[in-house]
Design brief:
214 residues; alpha/beta; six-stranded mixed sheet; two-stranded antiparallel ribbon; 7 helices; globular
Length: 214
Amino acid sequence: MELSTQIAKDLLSIRAVFFRPEEPFLWASGIKSPVYCDNRLTLTAPAVRSDVENGLCELVRTYYPEVEVLMGTSTAGIAHAAIVGHLMGLPMGYVRSGNKDHGRQNRIEGRLEPGQKVVVVEDLISTGGSVIEVVEALRDAGATVLGVVSIFTYGMQRGLDRLAAAGVENHSLTNFDCIVSVAAREGYIKPEDVERLIAFRNDPSDESWIGGNQ
């Protein structure tokens, strides 16, 4: 089975990605969304966790074979970076959302030498803003950021454009379109919901998909 399909099945099976087009979720940004995503649930599902971490290892080996250090995003990427680092025998650290207000006031935790080749481990990419901030913090510290590996990406155009503008390459285990396809095939959503969900992905600010009115 293709890796993206396997991970999609895994995430749906534990409701780490959960679709509710009839009763949209409200994001902090105010956007109404037909999907809820909580990849932290993979950590409490050992079989799924194994698929995810081995999959992330595969992405790192395939796209970034020269990696020297893994850096997780705070907080969701930290555990995944630690597990992948353990499996691959690589050092890992993580990047805080801001500097500590005590001690050494670090933003980057773990040893990082200027010039080291880094891969960022993230759980979810939507608009790309938070992972770009992490990459910029690492670049400011002198790291050579090879790119990002993540569990899931929405594939929203705004996110793709922002990553491209920042010179950030991302490879995800699975994506919104794949999960929607698997969800329809396996009965998590109705086949007629697929078009509505893709409409949301294409333009989250356009709420015409709600109620099935395209």
